[in-house]
Structures are given as structure tokens and as C-alpha cells.
């Protein structure tokens, strides 16, 4: 059977291993498995959201409101924009897909950092577009500017903060770069972890309203999967000028999020106290990881997210990740990104204590 030729060069996205798989493969009880691989909020979902879902579960046979009026109005109020500035997706990665397919073809070029969210490249290659990457793993805007001038790409991806590394550009330097970008180039600001970055350092905060008013060729992406703890509900959104939004809507299938997902996102926006509490706990726990790395002379990337990247010199990250997996600790090996490093979600106090204990065991075994 023949398929589209561009698919030959499209890599598969490798998601973090589920707890169920580790239970089956290694015979470890689910209660003894800790997953710190997918940057989920370890404190669970807001109790108010859980109650809302329980209350409306009986309505799951109904299609959702496809206008998504209430959610879009809530987001419009939060960001001080209009509802026609917003598109809703099944996770923010679906908005990525819309944007790339709206803008790219086999003659297109897409610019991104060397090490960043894998779906940028995957979606771009689905259209046959050429991928242009910086030499630096982390976002280096001097390199971005040089490559932009050389290749004139159709789309530029800036992951702020960056996944899977955790570094974050300042708003000022982002804006300075965007001033040099042609207005026909679509700039995608992926703010999946922006709530964390803004909490840690106000200089990192990019306001969707200010962004799209200053740069009409930009789109801001947000998600409910991280700080709002709705990873299993798959709700994301894009904020941009109406022309961009209208074109993305032409690619959106009807009812692209569920009745329960829609209700969960609406309710989650009402409980900012829960979100801020989770973020505060995240950075308190992150200090333990930084201290552990400093005490053990491990290099790490200062993180503005809910995860941390630890780089190894005397150990092989793939072996470390596998040994941890065999002990029921799921983390992310970054070998596939060309790095001898692991990415670890910042968990609860108990989860992190277990991680440090098991990592010590593994490192001692691998000496």
C-alpha cells in the first residue's frame, strides 16, 4: 500500500511510559510506581473541578457546546482579549497542528531550537516542510536571527519556557527579536509552562494581549495540562488576531474536545488559588533538586517549569533511566534529543524523597 511520501521522514512521538506498562513489565505494584516523566501536576486536579465532573458525568452522552462560548469568554476575560481571538484545541499541540497545516507545504521552512518540543518537527514534517534548527540546544536568539535572515521561514517556534530543557527567555529579548521578523512569518509562542515562569520571574511573563497587539503575526499557546492539572482532559488554546484564528478554525473538526473536558477547563479557571498553591509547592520542591545536584556535582539547567533537566558526565543517562524504571521510578531519558541527561518532573515531597533514594542506589550500582 502506498502512503504519502513525506511520512517516511516523520518520527514517532515517544510519550512517557505509563504506570500500567511498568506494572506489567516489571511486576511492580501500581502503588509502588512513581511517574515523574510527563510533567503532570503531582498534586492532582482541583477538588472543585473533580466535583463539577462528578455532577455532570450523567451528561456525557451529549455533545459539547461546539461554540465553546463559556470557556472562550472565561479565557477572554482572563487575558483581556475578545472571544474571537481564541481557538480551543485538544491540548495546545492540536493548535500547533492547525497552525502548521494552515501555513506550510512542501516548499515551506520552519525554524526552531535544536532541543525543544518534539511535536513542532513532527507536525512540520507531515506537510513536507524543511526543518531549520539552531546549533545551540537552548534558545539562542542571535542564532535564530541569523537563521531567520538566511532562510526566511514561514513559521518560527519559540517555546517559553522550553520543554524539555526548562530554560526561559526574557520577554524583552523575545520582543526585540520579533521586531526583526517579517509580518508574513507566523511566530508561535508556546506558553505551556508560562504560569510557572511568570510565578518565578515576572521578567519572563508574556501577556497574550500585549503580544498579539504588538505583533499581529504571533499566536500564543496555552494549556490546561500542566499548572491546571488537566492533562487527562486534553484542553489547550491559542490566542491570536481574528484573521489567524479564523483560518485555524477551518482545520478544526467539530466537537474537538469533550463535554467533560470543556466543563473541567471552565471550572479550573475559577480556582486560581489551587493553581498558585501548586506552583508555589513546585518551586519549593525544586530547591531540593538543585541542592541535590550541587551536593553531587551534577550540572543542571535552571528551570522555570515543573521539571528539571540533570546532565551527566560520569554516567550514561539511558542506563540511569532504565535502572530507575526497574525500581518503579519513571523519568524521561533525553538520549533521543542528543543529550546525556534526564528530565525529572518535580513531584510531591514523598515522591521526590523516593527519587533521590533510588537515584543514589542506581548511581552507586553504576559506578
Content of β-strand: 5-15%
Summed up, the helix count is 14
The unreliable regions are none
User: End-to-end distance, in Å?
Assistant: 50 Å
Give, in spatial order, the strands making up the sheet with the most strands. 2-8-7-6-5-3-4
Number of strands: 13
Helical proportion, percent range: 40-55%
Task: Give the helix/strand class.
Answer: alpha/beta
- Overall geometry comes to globular
EC number: 2.6.1.9
Pathway: Amino-acid biosynthesis; L-histidine biosynthesis; L-histidine from 5-phospho-alpha-D-ribose 1-diphosphate: step 7/9
GO molecular function: histidinol-phosphate transaminase activity
Family: Belongs to the class-II pyridoxal-phosphate-dependent aminotransferase family. Histidinol-phosphate aminotransferase subfamily.
List the helices and strands and how they pair.
Layout: H1 19-26, E1 34-35, H2 47-56, H3 69-79, E2 86-89, H4 92-103, E3 109-112, H5 118-126, E4 130-133, H6 141-151, E5 155-159, H7 171-178, E6 186-190, H8 194-200, H9 208-214, E7 218-223, E8 236-239, H10 242-249, H11 259-268, H12 272-295, E9 299-301, E10 307-311, H13 317-326, E11 329-330, E12 332-333, E13 341-345, H14 349-366
Parallel strand pairs: 1-11, 3-4, 3-5, 5-6, 6-7
Antiparallel strand pairs: 2-8, 7-8, 9-10, 10-13, 12-13
GO molecular function: histidinol-phosphate transaminase activity
Keywords: Amino-acid biosynthesis, Aminotransferase, Histidine biosynthesis, Pyridoxal phosphate, Transferase
Enzyme class: transferase
